[in-house]
Amino acid sequence: MTPTRKTSVSRKDLLLAGVMVVAGLGISAVSLAQLAPTHMQMAQATPPLQSTPGAESKPTAPAEPATTGARPSEIPPQPARPDADAQKAGATPVLPPAPAEKMAPPIPAK
């Protein structure tokens, strides 16, 4: 049997693919070797904690805070805008006056 051109091309393609795989594996090995740590340091644990003298007589947790989180009831809330009588007496509003609402002309019906 005589070799045909098709089988020789397949052999060349197979050889080229093999070379590419070997080159890829070589590059991967070099990259992994670069990433590997060369000098490893071991972490040291801290020494065990020692109790302070007289710790048995001290409380372990602080006392609960006196606040309950509720709003104080003896101070009434103040309005942002004083009523008309207060404004006549001289009170100034905390907030600037609100802008007037803009109204567009009505949409004509089709």
How would you describe the overall organization of this protein?
There is one protein chain. It is flat, with a radius of gyration of 43 Å. The protein has a domain of 31 residues. It is 34% helix and 0% strand. The model has no long low-confidence stretch (mean pLDDT 77). The relative contact order is 0.04. It starts with a helix and ends in a 21-residue tail after the last helix. The protein has 110 residues and is an all-alpha fold. The chain is built from two helices and no strands.
**Percent of sequence in beta strands:** under 5%
What structural class do the secondary elements suggest? mainly alpha
User: Which sequence of SSEs, written as H and E, runs from N to C?
Assistant: HH
How many beta-strand runs? 0
| Radius of gyration from CA coordinates | 43 Å
Précis, in short:
With 110 residues, the protein is mainly alpha-helical. It has helices at 5-35, 84-89.
What topology does this entry show?
Layout: H1 5-35, H2 84-89
Features:
110 residues; mainly alpha; flat
